[in-house]
Amino acid sequence: MAARPRELTPDRSARHLFGAKMRAHRERADMSLERLKDVVMVSTSHLSRIETADAMPPPDLAKRLDAAFGTDGIFEELYGLARREIHPDQFRRRMELEAQARLIEEYAGQIVPGLVQTEGYARALFEMFDPKAAPEEIEELVTARMSRQTLLSADFPPDISLILDEAVLRRTFGGPTVMHAQLSRLVDLTLTPTSVVQVLPFEHGGHALVGGTLTLMTLDNGAHVAYEESISTGTLLEDLAAVSARRRAYDLLRACALSPSDTATFIRSLMEVLPDERHT
């Protein structure tokens, strides 16, 4: 018995409407996903995910759909809207994509990325962000942050590449002991079979990503996505042109950052000058 098609929600966003219209026109033409695949040259699995709004349509798909269904530019208009909108459930979607990623590359300008935070550092961050939060709320957030890191110890973990602004390492959270443990973890990750950490020193000056945090993800199906984050908001980018522009900015920073070996030496030098809380 064939699986029942997933119910669509075209009212949620332009991306959802794109997928719903695609299914409606496909069914009107009595065309299976397998048959449509041969017409538009996109895999069956990818077409299925586009219909359910779990994937962004490729840039050239809209024109091919208009040609296949004779829809006079409707799909091109919908794609123009979808590529510019903010994903309605972007952080949840980011977590789903992170779990599928084979390569995660991140630039952080102010704080250590969540994937490599220690428990103490994460707790200090959450307490700083919301000093009125109840202790149990903080612990719930810390537990969620730590559980997110389990993907790094999976049987087939993703590769991670981190570029950390020097400010990340010099701005302490939770006191010297907490910061020492966090820096120690970063040293351990500077160059392993699955991780690379590099520091971008202050002397590099300004750059295109200075205003926030950028995460680039290469998924197991070869797709590329980006996620930009500010103080309390984030934007998921799946449009090829937008992701390519962020990729270029990231690559320029990587070329200017310290090598992993020099990064480890630099971080150790900061650990040595942290005050000893036992004697303060």
Kindly report the CATH topology of the largest domain.
Endonuclease, Chain A
| Global structural class | alpha/beta
N/C terminus separation: 71 Å
Order of helices and strands: HHHHHHEHHEHHEEEEEHH
Question: How would you characterize the overall build of this protein?
Answer:
GO terms for molecular function: DNA binding. This is Helix-turn-helix transcriptional regulator. Residues 21-76 form the HTH cro/C1-type domain. It comes from Streptomyces malaysiensis subsp. samsunensis. The protein is an alpha/beta fold and 280 residues long. It has 2 domains: 14-82, lambda repressor-like DNA-binding domains (434 Repressor (Amino-terminal Domain)), CATH 1.10.260.40; 90-279, Endonuclease, Chain A (2-Layer Sandwich). Helices cover 48% and strands 14% of the residues. The protein contains 12 helices and 7 strands. It has helices at residues 14-28, 33-40, 44-51, 61-69, 74-82, 90-100, 119-129, 135-148, 166-170, 176-189, 240-256, 260-272; strands spanning 101-108, 159-165, 191-192, 195-200, 213-219, 224-229, 234-237. The chain has a 7-stranded mixed β-sheet, sandwiched between helices. β3 and β4 form a beta hairpin. It is elongated, with a radius of gyration of 22 Å. The mean pLDDT is 89.
